[in-house]
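User: Here's a chain of 467 residues. Predict its fold as tokens.
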Amino acid sequence: MSKGTLFDKVWDLHTVGILPSGQTQLFIGLHLIHEVTSPQAFAMLRERGLKVLFPDRTVATVDHIVPTENQARPFVDVLAEEMMQALENSCKEYGIPFYNIGSGDQGIVHIIAPEQGLTQPGMTVACGDSHTSTHGAFGAIAFGIGTSQVRDVLASQTLALSKLKVRKIEVNGDLKPGVYAKDVILHIIRTLGVKGGVGFAYEFAGTTFERMSMEERMTVCNMSIEGGARCGYINPDETTYEYLKGRDFAPKEGDWEQAVSWWNGIKSDRDAEYDDIVTFAASEIPPTVTWGITPGQGIGIDESIPTPESLAEGDRDIAEEAYKYMKLDPGVPIQGTKVDVCFVGSCTNGRISDLREAAKFAKGHQVANGVKAFVVPGSERVKKEAEAEGLHHIFLEAGFEWREAGCSMCLAMNPDKLQGDQISASSSNRNFKGRQGSSTGRTLLMSPAMVVAAAINGTVTDVRKML
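Assistant: Prediction complete.
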């Protein structure tokens, strides 16, 4: 087993005890909740006459079901309104801080916690959402959990978990122009597979990650779960501290230096032992786009959709399923594939740096005829900052729609949905069947810059041609 890694240190520091099952009872420092998985958990508490043990360690927001156009209450969607009311009432009843629409702080749960400084190195973080791995970018150990586990954390501030192995994923060197953090993680998942990380925590290391901004690191860690890993993290460094300093919940004044000293102490030791180590060269990573129905079915923009005989035998059945569902032919270049909808946003790529980069490519261009293109900021703070910089004007002038903050079409538990078998160029994290709201809708994952290039050209396009 691993030894001396950040994962081992944080795990040990938060261990309450070992349960009869052999699992660890792990203390959770920060619990994030939203309107989808929490109503049932609160109902379970009430059935058992339990209280929320540490309401000050739980933070709530709304994101999944939030409309990004008409946000007038009550919502048009009756179920969405019921979920909103359930969360509002529960937070009021149990004294849980709640960032509601219009507060100025509402947004996708994995965006608002980092931007407010709630997420910090050395923490254990849990949320009833699979992409909680995002918070690992800060050197935290962050787990997506199910509804019954949300109940457990509310009632006891602990989780019963089996300790993971640790795989170190090293990427070294400079990324080529037009290649982004999204391409890096899609390339890793393509190589290791969607089940390659099962039973592992991923530690992302190497000069490529060291040079990334915090928002780029969040993009990488966000999709650890898509590679099968339960969590993914990056050791904290000066980039981490510079991002956190001065944020709402970050340590202040005299506490700051003490916090940084402690954070430095939880980094993986130089002689840390890992269960596995995998290395990649940044220069070999191309702009990457998925073609199939799993995030592992990705290819470089210059490549063609793989033929069955070019795939490992174990990958052929899912490929055949993908050909049929996606209505794409093996052996055909992915570049030039027609798109109907282009979406920039989500907890993967809805931060201010994502919008800035997307705006660079949108400026001076027009969305192609017949293409619906829209941009959804990841939080109310991101929206305010983008508008202060005039980014919304760039998008609107180019023919994009500019929306309110929310999860939007990432999973379409709101009015933003694909229709029929429309094909989407999406900066989100999953391309499963029906993921974007239509049982026959098709999703191609790519970076925000690539989404903009597709919107302008009406087809999947190599963004490097627009540099």
